[in-house]
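I am writing to request your help with a piece of structural work I have in hand. Here, with my thanks, is the record as I have it:
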Amino acid sequence: MMNMLDPLIHAERWMLEGKEVVIATVVKTWGSAPRPVGSHLVICEDGTFEGSVSGGCVEGAVIEESSEVMKSGEPKMLEFGVADETAWRVGLSCGGRIEVYLERVG
């Protein structure tokens, strides 16, 4: 049942347990983006994650970047798109572009 909840519910639960959490939010899309603005991926300090910002295309890269945000506490903006060589490496081939904002909470 927990897996069907909004990712932010998971983030809240983890924070109430005293864990550090990073929330990744799609803040801008262009073209054929895999997920709409406002989509969330939440990452717990223990590596657990819930939600999606790209339907699986770039989640690995976002989770990897979240560890830096978790350690530093500094938010970060990520951009993935077909013109970005990194995007192809992580699998964003839908023809669109997304911007994802990462911030630590808890």
Q: What stands out?
A: Helices lie at 7-16, 59-72, 85-90. Residues 59-72 form the longest helix (14 residues). Residues 75 and 103 are 5 Å apart (CA to CA).
